[in-house]
Amino acid sequence: MTTFLPPTTRAALHLVLRLAIVLAVATALVVVELTSRSGVAWRLITFTYQANLLAAAYYAWTLFSRRADDRAGLRGAVVLYVVVAGVVWNLLLTGRSMGYTPANFLLHVVVPVLAVADWVLVRRGAARWWQPLAWLVYPAAYLGVALVVLNRVGRRAPYYFLDPGSVGAAGVTVNVAVLAAGFVGLGYLLLAVARPTPANVLAPPTDLSSS
Length: 211
Fold this sequence. Notes:
Blueprint: H1 7-35, H2 47-62, H3 66-69, H4 72-93, H5 102-121, H6 131-134, H7 137-152, H8 164-193, H9 198-202
Helix pairs in contact: 1-2, 1-5, 2-4, 4-5, 4-8
C-alpha cells in the first residue's frame, strides 16, 4: 500500500494525529471523572481504559523520542488494542454502557480511527511477521485477571461475554476463541497495510521530535 504524501505533510500528520490521540484520551478521562458518580478509577479494570491509557502514553512518548517512534512492533500493539476495544464495544456493548456519551465516543470511535490513520499514513519501520502473535500476550494476561483474580475478590469479569455467570463456561470458551482469532486476524491485517514500499523507503517523514 503506497502513500503519496510528501515528507513534510507526513511529518505534520505525525504531530497532529498523535496530539489528537493524547488529547482525546485525556479529555475522556476528565469528562468521566467530573460527570460520573464513580469516577475513572473503577473503570481502569476494563480493557478499553487500559488500552487507551497505553495509547496516550505511547503516542505522547513518540512526540519526544525518535526511538519510541521506531518501535513499530509496540505501535502495532497499541493500534490493535484500541481498535479491538472499539470494535467490540460498538458491536456488543453500546446498550450496556450508556451509549455514545462524549467519553465513550472519544475512546471507542475517535481514538481507534485516529490510531489507524496514523498507522496507515505515518509509517516508520515495519513490524515483523511474528509480532501479531506476540501482541496476544497482554490480552491473554488481561483475560486471566478478568476470569480468575476479579472473581476471587468478588468482582465479576467486566465484560458479560467473559463472565461464566452470564454466558456459561462453554460460552466463555467460544468467545475467547473468537476474540483470539479476531486479535490475530486484525494484527496481520495491520501488518499487511503497513508493509514498506519503495515510496516509503525513499521518502521517510521528516522528524519533528528529538530523542
